[in-house]
Every structure is written in structure tokens, then in C-alpha cells.
Amino acid sequence: MSAFKEARHLFRFAGLFVLAFLVFLVVRHYVVPKSFGEYGHYRGAAIGEVAAHPVKFAGHETCESCHTDILEVKKNGKHAHVNCEACHGALADHANDPASVIPVKPDAAVLCARCHTASAAKPKGFPQVVPTDHSNGVPCQTCHNPHSPAMDAGGAK
Amino acid sequence: MNLSRRHFLVLVPAAAIAWKSVLAGTPEDSPNYKMTDHWWGMLIDIPKCIGCGNCVRACATENDVPDGHFRTWVERYHVTDENMVSPQVISPDGGKEGFPVAEEDAGKYFFVPKLCNHCADSPCTQVCPVGATFVTPDGVVMVDQKYCLGCAYCVQACPYGCRYIHPEKHVADKCTLCYHRITKGLTTACCETCPTGARQLVDLKNPKDPIHEFLKTHSVQVLKPQMATGAKVYYNDLDGSVR
């Protein structure tokens, strides 16, 4: 026992270490988020937080579930694969509440020109016109229906 | 503890509900979505891009991207016959409002839409000192904005320039591959609004995804392959002058 008597101060010191370790565990328990390490060295709950962001573009399937008449016009035309919100803009609010959120009709003069103004930079096969030469100021939708733009598909809708 | 059959039958659903609430908020909890079933990427078909800027505008709207910063942007390359090494590249306001009309001349033009490459071995996630950026089990590189300190190490580490410090939140911000949409079965805002189908969301773990056939039959490349980042944005028919 006498040998331990000399080492008593070491036991006290070791006790301090154990206490500090316990404090560390307690503090760690409170400061490290529950989901940390769930999938890797990061907070797993962050994935859910990113996924909780509100959707603003409803997606064409949503539009088509009500606007079946437009889908009929579109489906055989050149714009069959141009999704609704590519021109009409983000309309999830309208899809959630069709009665009170009324979308603004897009301006064809801006929209048609955005894609179809001739430029040497665009792919050669893509239909392009110089707007001033092409129509002499006549609005696009006089001759083209934006939902099915070929001339034989009929004019404005 | 003595547990009767009746008590056991009551306890099991209660425990299940409690476990549900523990999991709440993770996409694993959203119906029909399992992270381990997906490995997301994107296909960019260069010959289809017309530089309209729809993707840039849609991204800004969908994700509240502050003005002057971009989660996706479009570059226009002009490669002249004499100088294949240093092409002229423009991207006015990220291509948000389209591009000025180009006159026909020698050399070629093409558009290159860019976004986070959602690298499998991403340099940006490796440098984060606090574990605030990471690759999810379904292959999306994300920022935990509650954990991020805004030190911008990741902004410097990204070889593609896809990250920025959000001017109001003062934390790193980047493309989430519209994670809030793809976990609900929608496509990304940029793919949804691309009029020519130049951008397509791809799921490399889905054997029915047309990407597998496309990759077999087309000349496809990723950006900076020499950096071995494991980039998952595939570019079809990409010109060698693109850096």
C-alpha cells in the first residue's frame, strides 16, 4: 500500500482527466446535431432541408392534366417538346390555386424572337429568321399559332 | 418486464410512429423516393443548344439565385480557324437574356451551358473544414447552409467555378440539381424549360434511362477529365477548345 501512497496525486490527476472526458461527452452530445454522421461526415438532416425548398415550376405533366385542349394542339406540332413553362414561366402557384392565380399571357414578340432570331452562333438546322425582314412588323401570332407554329397548322389561338 | 400480447400490439405501431418522426425531414421519408436507388447526372447536347437563356432564368426563379450570381450559365464560344487554342468566350449576364446576334464569318460558334458537375470525387467537398458540403448517397453535391461558415475554400477548390458566396446569407451556394424537384419525380427547372431538349436530367442507376444507350452511341465527354473529379455532367459533341 505504501507504494500507492506515493502515487495518490497521480490518481487525483487521472480523476481530473476522467471528469474532463465526461464533460466532453456531455457537451458533444448537446452540440453535435443528431443526424451528423447519418450518411457520412455531415449533417444528414441538411438533405431534407434542401429538399424542402418550394417548387415554382409545376412541370408540364401538371399543366397537361387540366389543359388537355392545348396538349391536343401541341402534340403533332413543331413545339410538341417545348414544355409549357418554357414560354409561360413558373406557374406552380397557378397549379396550386387555379381560380385566384391567373397567369399573364406571355408577349409573343419577345418570346418568339428569343429563340428564332437569326444568328450565326445558332445550330444551322434550327429555324431562324431576321424578324424585321420576315414579317415587316406583323405580329408572329397573325400567321403562327405558338402552340403549333407551322403555317398550315392555322393562325392565332 | 411482463408484456402481454395486447400491449405489444399497441407498442409496435407507437414505436413505428416515433421512428417516423425521427426520420422526418429526410428525403428517405418522402414516398417512393429512395436515395440509394438513384445516381443523378445531366446530359448536355451541345448541337441542340440555341443560347436562349431559358435555363438561366428558370434556375434563378426556381432557386432564388441572387442577381449577378449563377447556379447555371451559358457560354458562347467563337473558335477561329487560325486560333484553336484560345477561343473567344462570352457570357453576358450568364446568358440570362440570350446573346447578341453573331455575324457569319470564318470559324465556328457554339453554346456551352454550364452548371455544377456533381462530381463523385468532388474537390469542393474535400476542402470543407466543417463538413458543410458533401455528396449525397444519390450523387448530388450539396451545401448545408446552417453549418457553412462562408470561408469560401470550396469556391476556390471547384475547378469549374460553380460556387459563389451568397451576398445576403454569407454562405456558399450552388446548384442543388433541383433536389427539391427530383425527389418529387419532377425534372430540374433548367431541363423543364429547355425548349430544344439540350439539357436532360439523367439517372445513371436507372437501367431504363435512355442515357445508357446515348453514351454507347455518341461522342460524350466531361469537363476537365484530367482532374479525375468524377464529373457527372456529360457533354455530347463537346469541342476540344472548351476548358
Structure write-up:
The complex is a heterodimer of chains A (about 160) and B (about 240). By secondary structure, chain A is mainly alpha-helical. Chain A is built from 10 helices and no strands. Chain A has helices at about 1-5, 10-30, 45-50, 60-65, 70-75, 85-90, 90-95, 110-115, 130-135, 140-145. Chain A is rod-shaped and about 110 Å long. The mean pLDDT of chain A is about 90. In chain B, a hairpin with a 6-residue loop joins strand 7 and strand 8 (about 170-175). The longest helix of chain B is centred in the N-terminal third of the chain and has 19 residues, at about 5-25. Chain B is globular. Chains A and B meet through helix 3 and helix 6 of A and helix 2, strand 4, strand 5, helix 5 and helix 6 of B.
- Structural class call of chain B reads alpha+beta
Number of strands of chain A: 0
- Percent strand of chain A equals under 5%
What structural class is derived from the secondary structure elements of chain A? mainly alpha
Strand adjacency order, main sheet of chain B: 9-1-11-10
What assembly state would you assign to the polypeptide chains in this entry? Answer: heterodimer
Low-pLDDT sequence parts of chain A: none
Strand content of chain B: 15-25%
Q: How is the biggest beta sheet of chain B arranged?
A: 4 strands, mixed
Distance between the termini of chain A: 103 Å
| Low-confidence residue ranges of chain B | 17-26
Cα shape of chain A: rod-shaped
Helical element count of chain A? 10
